[in-house]
Amino acid sequence: MTTTTWELLDQAYETLREAVAGVPADGWGRPTPCTQWNAAQVLRHAAGDQLAYAARLTGGPGPAEDPFAPSGTLAGPPRSLLDPALAAAAEAFAGVAPADPAVAVPLPPFSVPAETAVGAAALDAAVHAWDIAVATGRPPALTDALAAALRPAADALTEPLRGFAYGPAFPLAPGADQGAAAALLAFLGRDPGWAAPAA
């Protein structure tokens, strides 16, 4: 497993790996909180996003398909799709200096400080890990501690992308979970209480 010099990114990537590893073989067609995509499409999107980060950083090849129009096809084991994408992104981010004020990213504003760039890639991985985990009825793969560490990147980048990468903020009802994970998911337009429909 390739790791970076960025603990937050390593943690988010491991969260995504664990979520993917926990999906049963017949679970990839399950609906997800990303209402237009099933679990396989979320995986393809998540892998494609990380390849897009790697490509922006290195000038290397990006994803083979548009991450925002993912197919639902898995040609082999899910890890055979995910692992190369995470390894490429991890290697690319390993070369990012913490003090760099202008790191290239694949979405607007296209250049951000190093910590924000790393946080954006980590945010993408961790939230899609949550999508995949809850789609198959497993415990949410996003802790309050990880969510709190991701929140600065979300605060910096979400608003310009609403309506494209993120939906309107989801209103938390009184008495609902108010932890950092629930607050982050709601801010990104997800219902933190979303549950997989009965199979």
TrEMBL record:
Pfam families: MDMPI_N. SUPFAM superfamilies: DinB/YfiT-like putative metalloenzymes (SSF109854). InterPro entries: CHP03086 (IPR017520), DinB/YfiT-like (IPR034660), Maleyloyr_isom (IPR017517), MDMPI_metal-binding (IPR024344). It comes from the Bacteria. Residues 10-133 form the Mycothiol-dependent maleylpyruvate isomerase metal-binding domain. Residues 56-76 are annotated as: Disordered. This is Mycothiol-dependent maleylpyruvate isomerase metal-binding domain-containing protein.
